Amino acid sequence: MSVLSDDPPREPRATSAPEAVTEAENEQAVEEEEEEEPAFPEPETLEYSGVGDSVVEIDLHDDARIATLSHGGASNFTVRTLTSGGDNSDMLANVIGAYEGRVLYNAGEREEAAALEISADGSWEITLEPLSTAVSWGEDEDEFVGAGDEVVQLAWTPEGITALSMTHDGAGNFAIWSYTSTDRDLLVNEIGAYEGQVSLAAGTLLLAVTANGNWTFTR
């Protein structure tokens, strides 16, 4: 089972005796084979907003997504996902004051997310988006620069030994999770400013960043 997708394996197609095909049918078959499937599924984007403490039921789903969060208050802002049984699942945010960020959730074997539990003293907005909306690190770009919580999709494929240099100038937690289609790895988990180099697993698709300052990735 994929870490980023819970789709079941496809059933094998039934086979039959070969039949004569026309040249046009051959060309059509070649074109269909050349069409690439999207790297990530495209579920419907879900949008929610409110003020203060709330519990919001959402369309039941267990696929990995990106949550874009914002808060306009001055006190604690927390967002958790809840299962259909009311149990806590993912902590999407736990900050003080105004906040804007994007976080990855459901990227593992978990129960389906059925609701969001929000603690806030101001207005808030939450958008649940498909993984394809992650910001892209271009194939021709050696460096990627960002700030705060973010989800980065690699437009290039790490192979062999790939060294990744990282910096962070914030005072809070700096954590990086990397995701392949089958596994995840905690690359960095430090408090405050950071500068170092880590190895990136072959086939990495996404980097989920937790930060409260500016950060850079260099390959």
TrEMBL record:
Region spans: Disordered: 1-48
Top-level taxon in the UniProt lineage: Bacteria
Compositionally biased tracts (Acidic residues): 22-39
Full protein name: WD40 repeat domain-containing protein
